[in-house]
Amino acid sequence: MDMYVSMLATISAMDPSANIYIDDRLGRLIQIAIAFALVLLVWILRKKITNFFVKVVCRFLKQENNSRLQSELVVLYTPLQWLVVFIALHLSVSYILPITIQAYLASIPWGVGYLLLIGWGSANFVDVLSKRDWNTVGHMNKTLLHMTFKVVKYLIWALIIVMILDQFGFNINGLIAGLGLGGLAVALAAQDAVNNVFGCVVVILDKPFEIGDWIQTPDVEGIVEEISFRSTRVRTFQNALVSLPNSTIASSIITNWSKRDKRKLLFYVNLTYSTSKEQVQNIVTKIKEYLVSSPDIDTNSVIVGFEVMNSSSLDIKVECSVLYNDGKKFLAVREKINYAIMDIVKEEGGDFAFPSQSVYIESMPK
Predict the structure, then answer these.
(1) I need a surface site. Which of 115, 235, 244, 349 has the fewest CB within 10 A?
(2) 305 and 280 in one domain?
(3) What is the percent of the chain where pLDDT is above 90?
C-alpha cells in the first residue's frame, strides 16, 4: 500500500489537476483499510466479545453465580462468535466501504446469514434444555419434555427455512398450497412414518415404559435410552444399541422389569448327609429368623424349609422378596444373606455339600 501511495504522490507532483482523482482513490483505500481492519479486529476479539456479552446477560438476569446456566450457555458461544463477526462484516460492507462497492454488494442476502446463525444458536440451546436433569417432573413427563423439545427444534428450523425462502422472494402461501395438494401422495408414501409417530403417541400416553427402564420384548432386552418420533432406542446388556420402530413396539408384548417394587430371591442351601436332623431344623429356623428380621426383606414373602433329599445333599429351600429393584442393591442384599447363612451353618456344625459320588469296594483284587 505504501508503494501505491508513493506512486499517487508522484503522479500528483507531475500533474496538479490529478489531485482530486488521487484524493478520491486515497479515500477509497482508507475506507477499504478501515473496513478490513474492523472485521479483522472483531475476528481476533470475537471470544472476548462473546464472553463479555454472556456475562452481561447473566448479570442482567441476576444469574452471574449460576454455574449451571453459564455451562449451558457454552453451546451459544460458537454461534455468537460467528454472529459478532457477521455483524462487523455487514456494517463494514454497508457503511464503511465506498459507495460504489456498497452498490455492487447490495444484493448479498444478509438476512439469510442472520437467520441461519439465530437458528443455529436456538437449536443448540434447545438441545441443552432437553438434556437437563428435570428432577421436578416424573419419568414419563421427562419423556414428554424430550419429545416437546424435539418438536420445538424442528419448528425452529422449519420457521428459519420459511423465512429464508421469503428472503429469496418465494411465495410462501403458494408453497403451502402446493404441499396441501401433494399431501395425499406424501401420506401414501410415508405410511410407515405415520404409523411410527402414532406408535410414539401410544407409548407416551399408555406409559408401558420410560427412559431408563429395563424392558424385554420378543425382539430385544435392555435399558431404554431414547424415545423419538420414529423409534425407541434400547441399550442391550451386551452394550449394543437397538432401534425398534415405534409401530412395532406399540403392538408388542412388553415386560417392564423396572416396574417391580421388589425382586424375588430363590435358592437352595445344600447340606451334607452327615448333618443331623436337629442341625437341619436349627439351620432352617435361624435362616427364617434372620430373613424375617432383615429390613431389606418383605416379611410376608419369606419361605424357608427342608424341601428334598437329593442324591448327594439335603436341600433347604430359601425364598423371599428383596425390597429393592436396583440390581446393585439387590446383589448387596443377597451377599449379606449368603454370609449370614454361612455363619449359621458353621455355628450349627453343619457343612455344605457339593456334587459327589461314593464308591464302595466289596473286595480288593488279589
Answers:
(1) 349
(2) yes
(3) 26
- In a domain, residue 181? The reply is no
Indicate if 234 and 145 belong to the same structural domain: no
For 332, the domain range is 261-347
195 and 138 belong to one structural domain: no
Q: Which three cell numbers stand for residue 150?
A: 424435539
Q: How many residues does the chain have?
A: 366
In a domain, 366, yes or no: no
What single-letter DSSP state applies at residue 323?
A: S
Number of domains in the chain: 3
Answer for the pair 204, 147: CB distance below 8 angstroms, yes or no.
Answer: yes
pLDDT in tens, 146-182: 777 888 888 888 888 888 887 777 776 666 665 555 5
Confidence (pLDDT) at 11: 46
What CATH number is attached to the domain comprising 250? 2.30.30.60
In-domain check, residue 45: yes
**pLDDT at position 249:** 85
pLDDT in tens, 208-229: 888 888 899 998 999 998 888 7
**Is 284 a domain residue?**
yes
One-letter amino acid for residue 314 of the chain: L
- Which residue is listed with cell 451386551? 238
Q: pTM for this structure? A: 0.50
345 close to 269: Cβ distance less than 8 angstroms: yes
Is residue 237 within 8 Å of 221, Cβ to Cβ? yes
Cβ within 8 Å of residue 201, ≥6 positions away: none
Locate all alpha helices (DSSP H) within 131-171, ordered by sequence.
Answer: 139-167
User: If DSSP codes are grouped into helix, strand and coil, which group holds residue 173?
Assistant: helix
Q: Is 232 helix (H, G, I), strand (E, B) or coil?
A: strand
Residues 6+ apart with CB under 8 A from 255: 215, 216, 217
Contact 286, 348 (CB under 8 A): yes
> 218 and 178 in contact (C-beta within 8 Å)?
no
Among 140, 175, 210, identify where a domain stops: 175
311-346 pLDDT per residue, tens: 889 999 999 999 988 888 999 999 999 999 999 999
